[in-house]
Amino acid sequence: MDQIRVIFILGTGHCGSTLLDLLLGSHSKMLGIGEVERMEQTPKCTCGYALRHCNFWSELYLESFLRSLRLFRKPLDFIFGNQNYLTRRGKHSWKPLKDRQQFIKDNLLFYKTICNKSGKEIIVDSSKNIDRAELLAAEEAMDVFLVHIVRDGRAVTWSYMKKYNKALFYAYSWLTYYIKITLLKKRTTAGYIRVEYEDLVKKPELELKRILNALGYEFEPSMMEFRSQNNHQVGGNDMRFHKTVEIREDRDWIERMPLRYKILFKFFAFLKKSRYSDGKR
Ligand SMILES: [Zn+2]
Q1: CA nearest to 228, candidates 247, 203, 245
Q2: 230: CA distance to ligand 1 center in Å?
Q3: 45 C-alpha vs ligand 1 centroid, how far in Å?
Q4: Assuming Cys at both sites, which of 106, 108, 248, 257 could form a disulfide with 65, CB separation 3.0 to 4.6 Å?
Q5: How far does the centroid of ligand 1 lie from the alpha carbon of residue 59, in Å?
Q6: Secondary structure (H, E, C), 30-72
Q7: How many Å apart are CA 135 and CA 139, to the nearest integer?
Q8: 191 alpha carbon – ligand 1 mean position (Å)
Q9: Chain-centroid distance, C-alpha 22
Q10: Distance from Cα 58 to the centre of ligand 1, integer Å
Q11: pLDDT class of 155 with cuts at 50, 70, 90
C-alpha cells in the first residue's frame, strides 16, 4: 500500500505557521489544509466560502470522523511517552481516548480521502499538535515529515499579550512547547527540519528551497504567488484572508512591548538560541 505523506508543521501559536502552510500548499504537488483540528471553530475556508459550501470541504465537513481528529496528553504522560491520550468531548471538555486504533484509522481515512480528492501527493497540516504528530508518525501507513517553525519568544508572547493579556502563561507555553519538541525529536523516526520565522520572512525563496530540498521536491516560482492559488486552508490566523503576497516581518513588539517584558523575555530568547543553535539547519 502506498504510504500517506503528510507534513506536520509544528510550532507555538503566532509563529508563522499559517504563512508557511500557504506557501507550501501553493506547490503543485502539495495540499495545505491549515489547522484542520480547529475546523469547527473557524468554519470559513480560504477560498472565501463557509466550509459547508466550499467545493472542497463540503462533503467532508459533515463526516463525523472530522470531529475526532483532536487528542493530547498531559505533560507528564508526554514526557514519559505514556499512551494515556485524551480526546474531545463536546466543545470544551476532554475524555480518555478508549480506542486508539480507531482514532488512527479515522485519521488515516481522513488524509487518504483528501489526498484522493485533491490528487496531490503531500498534505500539509498546520494543526501544530505534537501528540498527534508523534502518534501518526509511528504508523507504517504514514510517511510523516516534521517542519518546525520557530519564532522569537518575545514576538510570540507580545502577540498573545495583545490578544489575551496573559503574558507569563504564554511565555511558559512557548518554553514547554520547545521542551516537547526536543523530546519528540529524540523519539520519532520522522524527518525533521527547523525553520526560523525571521529567516522565512526575510528570504522566503531560500528557506522554501531548503525545506523542499529536504522533502525531495523542486522549488516552483509560482509558490511566491501563494494568494492566487485555489487554497482551501481552514483554521489558523486571519492572515489566510489577506490579499497581499508581500511577506513582511511583524516587528510590532519591538516598538510597543513594555521594557520589563522585553528584559524578561530576553531570557526566553537566550534559551531559544542556546537550544536551537545546534547546526540542524
Ligand atoms: Zn474552500
Answers
A1: 245
A2: 8
A3: 5
A4: 106
A5: 11
A6: EEEEECHHHCCCCCECCCCCECCCCCCCHHHHCCHHHHHCCEE
A7: 7
A8: 29
A9: 11
A10: 8
A11: confident
Instruction: Look up residue 22 and give its amino acid.
Output: L
Q: How much distance in Å is there from the Cα of 13 to the middle of ligand 1?
A: 23
Superfamily name and number for 4-48+123-276? P-loop containing nucleotide triphosphate hydrolases (3.40.50.300)
Looking at residues 249-255, what average pLDDT do you find? 68
Q: Backbone phi, then psi, for 255, in 5-degree steps? A: -85, -35
**Termini Cα distance of the chain:** 32
**pLDDT of 273:** 52
Task: State which amino acid sits at residue 14.
Answer: H
pLDDT score recorded for residue 270: 60
Please name the amino acid found at residue 130: I
- Domain spans of the chain, in order of start: 4-48+123-276
Return the minimum-mean-pLDDT range out of 37-41, 61-65, 142-146, 274-278.
274-278
